[in-house]
Amino acid sequence: xxxxxxxxxxxxxxxxxxxxxxxxxxxxxxxxxxxxxxxxxxxxxxxxxxxxxxxxxxxxxxxxxxxxxxxxxxxxxxxxxxxxxxxxxxxxxxxxxxxxxxxxxxxxxxxxxxxxxxxxxxxxxxxxxxxxxxxxxxxxxxxxxxxxxxxxxxxxxxxxxxxxxxxxxxxxxxxxxxxxxxxxxxxxxxxxxxxxxxxxxxxxxxxxxxxxxxxxxxxxxxxxxxxxxx
Length: 230
Fold this sequence. Notes:
Number of domains: 1
Number of helices: 7
Helix content: over 70%
């Protein structure tokens, strides 16, 4: 009998979160910017300049923000691991008892918990404490560069979609065309990300399209207000 191999999605959390955030922000922010400027009765050239500027600035901002925030998480993880490494070197008996208590708390009886703790400690003491005491695992550990690149690249791709819609639509209908197509892109993004993460698709689609529509409606109202005032 062949061994059963389960497929889990937790190893995708790091890059999937950053990618979905980047693409969603790229679509929403750029579409909202384009719709707002178009509602102010700007020319196609001005709309595209604003959109491209938003794409570049947004991609750089996403990369910097993700790198800084995830680096802070990585620094915290490394500090905790270094503290645990020192404690293992200076007081191994206490650390063994700590690990045993964790397994007892999870339902093992004391002799078995002690045996498991001793075997895991002999094999990889720091890894056992990182995983079971600190909650740090290889699949969920912070990766600043990966997060920054995923966010920046997906933001740029997401931002390019409403810009392409603006280029291909009649100048008098840019706001309408960009709004409709961007909501379609957001719905597609919500469905794909939910499928990749194993989450309910309908809920994800409704969530991203609602907030996207709200953002575009707000900027359209501001753009129309300033366009009338001008």
